[in-house]
Amino acid sequence: MSEALRTTVAGLDFQNPVLLASGTAGYGRELSGVVDLDRIGGFVTKAVSPEARHGNAAPRGWDFDGGMINAVGLANPGLAAVRTEALPWIAAHVQRARVLVNVVGHTMEDYGEVVAGLDATPGFQGYELNVSCPNTKKGGLEFGADPESLRDLVSRARAATAKPLFVKLSPTLPDVVGTVRVAIESGATGVTLFNTLPGLVVDTETRQPVLGFGSGGVSGPALLPVAALAVRRVTQALPGVPVIGTGGVSSADHVLQLVLAGASLVALGTASMAAPRAAERIVRDLARWCEAHGVSRLADLRGALEWPS
Ligand SMILES: Cc1cc2nc3c(=O)[nH]c(=O)nc-3n(C[C@H](O)[C@H](O)[C@H](O)COP(=O)(O)O)c2cc1C
């Protein structure tokens, strides 16, 4: 493993900055026959909610020219099963990769409940709070779009753990820097930029949405520049806040773009669904790139983008 890729983020030691994004790596076990999890920096688990969720009607995912759209509906086995089955498997089988548990809820209380319910279980080092979903007590307004809800939600999670907390935001927020500020002031350690972008793909023959749920979240190539700009803005305005850059990453060059923009870690989702070993390939390519460019520590390039004056 290349020493040039090693990095410390939020007090955690990562052997490299390449993660698998939530929802595309299951709870590790699902990928373990195909991906050597201990070669990547880490992975973010699929969502965990207090109760099991069955998810949305099929089709749940659809490829289109610009990437992919999905409405999986945050299907997951629920807190109890993750505690007794998924995390013990990770604890027994994943040694070097870092693991963040992705948390989701219908209410603010749900987030605190999941964090409190998992915190003492071995197998993971931190959390990612998915706040880009509807708050059922506020008429479906996204948690992350409402500073008051966001403050309450993050504070509840923080009260239940001393572990790092990353807050994962939607690319549709009108003021991403302001939202990140609220999250950090409420106890978040860092943020993930971004989740999917809301969208609709229509089947013109049936005149229906291609997805069983109707609308969905767009992911893939076009999100990379969107994430890069937000990473840049957030890390310029709030230096020291660790950012997991996410969106459209499928190569070492894409990881470098996000690191230069200011990301501390980079996660890929859609690309690794198409090619499960993409993250391992990216790690190898990054190591080669560092060697070829005489870079002894990739983390030194964080935020080193030269902006036109
Ligand atoms: C099939 C699928 C399932 C996803 N499930 C989750 C999830 O459970 N929780 C979450 O926070 N993000 C989820 N995401 C969003 C990804 O983690 C990521 O933020 C997004 O896809 C953008 O990255 P990408 O362009 O590399 O896919 C999911 C994405 C996809 C494609």
Describe this structure in words.
With 309 residues, this protein is an alpha/beta fold. The protein has one domain (3-56, 73-198, 219-301): Aldolase class I (TIM Barrel, Alpha-Beta Barrel), CATH 3.20.20. It has eight helices and 16 strands. The strands form four sheets. The protein has an eight-stranded parallel beta barrel, surrounded by six helices. Strand 8, helix 3 and strand 9 form a beta-alpha-beta unit. The model has no long low-confidence stretch (mean pLDDT 97). The structure holds flavin mononucleotide. Residues 21-24, 46-47, 61, 68, 70, 72, 74, 102, 130, 168, 195-196, 219-220, 223, 246-249, 268-271 line the site of flavin mononucleotide (FMN).
Q: How are the SSEs placed, and which strands pair?
A:
Blueprint: E1 7-9, E2 12-14, E3 18-20, E4 42-48, E5 61-64, E6 67-70, H1 79-93, E7 98-103, H2 108-118, E8 126-130, H3 147-159, E9 165-169, H4 176-185, E10 190-193, E11 197-199, E12 202-203, E13 208-209, E14 216-219, H5 223-237, E15 243-246, H6 252-261, E16 265-268, H7 270-274, H8 278-292
Parallel strand pairs: 3-4, 3-16, 4-7, 7-8, 8-9, 9-10, 10-15, 15-16
Antiparallel strand pairs: 1-2, 5-6, 6-14, 11-14, 12-13
Bound molecules: flavin mononucleotide.
